[in-house]
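Intended use. Records like the one below are meant for learning the mapping from a protein sequence to its folded structure. Do not use them to infer anything beyond what is encoded.
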Amino acid sequence: MKYRTLGKTGMNVSVIGLGTWQFGGEWGHNYTQPEVDAIFEKARETGINLIDTAECYGDHLSEEFIGKAIERDRDKWVLATKFGHKFHNLYERTRHFQPEEVLDQLDESLKALRTDYIDLYQFHSGVGEEFDNDELWTMLDKQLKSGKIKHIGISIAKNDDIYQVGNAGRIGSEAVQVVYNRLDRAPEDEVLPSCRHQNLGVLARVPLASGYLSGKYKPGASFADNDVRHRHNKEETRTKLESVAHLHKNEVPEGVPMAQWALAWCLNHPAVTSVIPGCKNAEQAAANAAAADLDLVTEEHPQAVGK
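Structure written out for the chain above:
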């Protein structure tokens, strides 16, 4: 495993993190604690130390799984979670960004995660006045001073949201989470350059484009009713699968698994600190971690992954 410093936070994080949205039950599988424990045991073996979750991945369900899985060695992990939403049913959430609501969410997250501090607490896909609320950031600053939070971050809803990124310093954010992958390069225009200029850590989410870049699916593939991709626009899915086939033929080196290539491709951008792919099981966690060993060089980003 390789490690990078997450911007101004000073925290060293593995370049491959562990995304945990799937533990909330919306990936078509209801996880058990032994299944989650096995994934975390593999993460330990491979050197992964970064976890990303949220209060609305299930009703704190993902956090509860994680809390039990890392309770014995909590101090070895960099734990990132988010705030601003409440899970009600599959794919149904309500928005809650008022200071008193967020403080309640924070306390519930700490309880679920079985910890007394969160390393990175992230504003989760908020908009407009939800972001421009000085009372919210004042309240969170108090939590920083109390030690409940170590650092604040922003997880932007639109991956070209330069307003929130540009105002990161004003609200005390030291890291940005953004959708970035080989099929969606919008952050390269303004967001990633701004992050580099401000020394903001960058977590690239959805680096496998919801699994389309895993290399498992060919043009014409269909997805089961309980697969989240079944909900995607059919024409957009068709276009993505055709693009993936083109990339596999023209850009992926022979003998390199496409999923590992896709993760390494993201890491080659000089602004990206870490990628946070999800995984269904321990085997996928190990395969993701192996991407850290790829010294991938591309025309767009001519530096190697480990640099």
